[in-house]
Amino acid sequence: MKVKTPVYKNDHITSKVVDLTYQGNGVIKVEHYPIFVPNTLPGEEVEIVVTKVTRNFAWGKMVKLISKSPDRVEMKDQRYLQTGIAPLGNLKYPAQLKFKRHQIQELLEKAHLDDIQVAPTMGMEHPYEYRNKAQVPVKLIKGQLQTGFYKRGSHDLVPIENFLIQDPVIDQTIKIVRDQLRQYHIQPYDEQTGRGCIRTVMVRRGYYSHEVMVVLISNTKKIPHVEEITKEISAKVPGIKSIVQNINSKRTNKLLGDVNHTLWGQDTINDQLLGINFTISPLSFYQVNPQQTERLYETAIQNAGLDGTQTVIDAYCGIGTISLAVAKHAKKVYGVEIVPAAIEDAKMNAKNNGIANAEFVVGKAEEQMAKWQEEGLKPDVLIVDPPRKGLGEELIEATGKMKPEKVIYVSCNPATLVRDIQRFMDQGYHVTKPIQPVDQFPQTTHVESVTVLERA
Ligand code: SAH
């Protein structure tokens, strides 16, 4: 059956943009039927052509910008919008911060929780060049090895030298590596045939330490001319401390393989967060915006109201960044995390920093919480920092039984945050402060926030 839609492919429509989706696309409406149009902003009058029609919505492409939003940033280089680098790059930064706050407000409203306040988003003074890590694909384009970024939703590489939101030394390092790979005629990996050598270049740089690590992710065990290449990289990259080969021979989208092999220098680099030293290995998870991570954690720690007498659980603790920052202000901290290597890092980081009141276990947070509860552990504060899918229901139920006075919820997904707030309310908890969004990823659509829940 053919469904009747209010618009057809190739229709030209002139209309006002009424909304911005959480992915950063403008929305125009024809009889309540939404058409998503990239690079258009609320309030703008635009002429568009319909490019794709489905039962419930359509996609369009702007052909003419009739009236411009005062929040628009003129981007000469459209590649930043087209790739995943800066999907909000066309929006002035104060408007980006409002957009992020508004997203949480809207979800609360939909859940009939509009009495919960949301504070203005904490932004960055310089919302560019903040990332301390880059992972760039390497591909052969028209016979030349290129590094860059994939177009949104595709595997088409767009060659880029200035990545806009990365530490400029990282951009510089990628260029140096690319030029060496070109000079020695290294074959980029080809997804179609499964042949070729280098798949991805990863670069990390410590924000405080300025130490640089280069990881060459290869399909093959051997990289031709590897000695010459490493020698050149080690001579040219400022602050280089470590060059590692990571072997990933699998035909998958997964970036990193399991085998690391240090080609030059150290196996790891160091950096600090809130004065605590962290050792970072090629596979470690480490927050990518160190300046804002400090503000996020400071907000979480301040809200926990610690005075050195409390017992704290840090669920989803990763390499223990929050746990170790909290340890100074608490009697005892327990961390739980599902990835064994991250817990090894957490234990090592505790030891290296002389922190003796933090204990780490490998496990699923929801199961471990239930276990701790059965064992009679009585935390005063629970801190959670879950992945996008939010908290397991068992964890919230176990919390209801353990009855910590406070729950500090660090969230990277407002939708699951709002769902979980409702579940905590069923357990007798209430949001007692305005939710604090902290912008961890300027120019992108990611929304991070800190919520304080207390027992009624
Ligand atoms: N708080 C840490 C990590 C946050 S990211 C930091 O700021 O660095 C979320 C973490 O949750 C990841 O390390 C992920 O491996 C872990 N994780 C995912 N599902 C989990 C589960 N069910 N139980 C415990 N940890 C989990």
From TrEMBL:
Q: Active-site positions, per UniProt?
A: C412, C412 (nucleophile)
* InterPro entries with a match to the protein in the record: MeTrfase_TrmA_AS (IPR030390), MeTrfase_TrmA_CS (IPR030391), NA-bd_OB-fold (IPR012340), SAM-dependent_MTases_sf (IPR029063), TRAM_dom (IPR002792), U5_MeTrfase_fam (IPR010280)
Q: Which GO terms describe its molecular function?
A: methyltransferase activity
| Biological-process GO terms, alphabetical | methylation
**Enzyme Commission number:** 2.1.1.190
Span of domain TRAM: 6-64
User: Can you tell me which residues bind S-adenosyl-L-methionine?
Assistant: Q287, Y316, E337, D385
Q: Print the keywords alphabetically.
A: Methyltransferase, S-adenosyl-L-methionine, Transferase
At the top level of its lineage, which domain of life is listed? Bacteria
Write down the NCBIfam families for this protein, in alphabetical order.
rumA
Annotated PANTHER family? RNA M5U METHYLTRANSFERASE, TRNA (URACIL(54)-C(5))-METHYLTRANSFERASE
> Hey, which family's this protein in?
Belongs to the class I-like SAM-binding methyltransferase superfamily. RNA M5U methyltransferase family.
Its name, as the record gives it, is: 23S rRNA (Uracil(1939)-C(5))-methyltransferase RlmD
The organism's lineage is:
Bacteria, Bacillati, Bacillota, Bacilli, Lactobacillales
Name the gene for this chain.
Answer: rlmD
